[in-house]
Design a protein that fits this description.
By secondary structure, the chain is α/β, with parallel strands linked by helices. The chain has 2 domains: about 5-100 and about 295-325, NAD(P)-binding Rossmann-like Domain (Rossmann fold), CATH 3.40.50.720; about 105-285, 3-Layer(aba) Sandwich (Rossmann fold), CATH 3.40.50.720. The chain is about 35% helix and about 15% strand. The protein has helices at about 15-20, 40-45, 60-65, 85-90, 105-120, 120-130, 160-170, 185-190, 200-205, 225-230, 245-255, 275-280, 295-315, and strands spanning about 5-10, 25-30, 50-55, 70-75, 95, 150-155, 175-180, 195, 205-210, 235-240, 260-265, 285. The strands form 2 sheets. A 7-stranded parallel beta sheet has the order 8-7-6-9-10-11-12, with helices on both faces. The chain has a 5-stranded parallel beta sheet with strand order 2-1-3-4-5. The longest helix has 21 residues, at about 295-315. The radius of gyration is 22 Å and the shape is elongated. The structure holds glyoxylic acid (GLV). Glyoxylic acid binds near residues 77, 79 and 102.
Length: about 325
Amino acid sequence: MTAKPRILVARAIFDDVIGKLAAHFEVDANQADDALAGPALAARLAGKWGAFTTGGERIDAALLAQCPTLKIVANMAVGYNNFDVAAMTAAGVLGANAPGVLTETTADFGFALLMATARRITESEHFLRAGQWQKWRYDLFAGQEVHGSTLGIIGMGRIGQGVARRGALGFGMRVIYHNRTRLDAATEAACQARYVSKQELLQTADHVVLVLPYTPEAHHTIGAAELALMKPSATLVNLARGGIVDDAALAQALQAGRIAAAGLDVFEGEPQVHPALLACRNVVLTPHIASATEPTRRAMAHLAADNLIAFHTQGRALTPVNPEALAPGR
Ligand code: GLV
């Protein structure tokens, strides 16, 4: 009997997913959930054929040079900016992500964050819990209108389209979007969304939602100059990745009342959060939980596991990000 390939599961995960993997692999499971990065991650990957990662583990040329036996890294995340894709392809290491299974759940959360931000839900709850609610007032926590307003979405992939549909069909919003490539007419019609320039979107939208993937070109898509274009009554939601927004510039804009409010699920350098953001009253902060329902996290974990299993048993992953890594003669 040939030995099972060895894999690392880099973070704690559902026991049944470990069980499923154990039927195919010799599993080194980090159920203790120790932070593994750099040399610690390389040491734990020594001799491994594959890795199950969660989106936070950096896989780059320096790490790959120390892990010559590694053949595949499967992320339990749709985003894969933790992968240096070029370095992985050069090393013949396949990367896989977990798209599709989290689309609707993440779009739900985007809408929850938009609503909480526009209607000042967490700010008013803090006020109530602090015993500050003494009487009704005509303008107590008056927020921004959601229904019938203009929703601007930057990044119109699957999740962006889910946010658009919720806005257009559920809340009667006018939806405008900006994307690297314009959607086809049928998809635009299904989302009731109109393509505009980034500048027009920022100047016109009442609520700006960011759902674009992180790439070096997307770094600080929203900084001081972009915030200056937005309406003073506008809100901003970042569902995408830390680094897409310049968090320091955003904190300044929020403090100065340059825009009304922001809702952030992702942060530059997370789990650290810029201290100036923590000091702002008009920001809703959540710890990167947009896809966090039990069924969705389970589906994401199973898809990552299935990518490893399919590659082992059939020589192909279900949702590869760099299939060119397997090109013959590479
Ligand atoms: C979460 O951020 C993901 O990319 O799945």
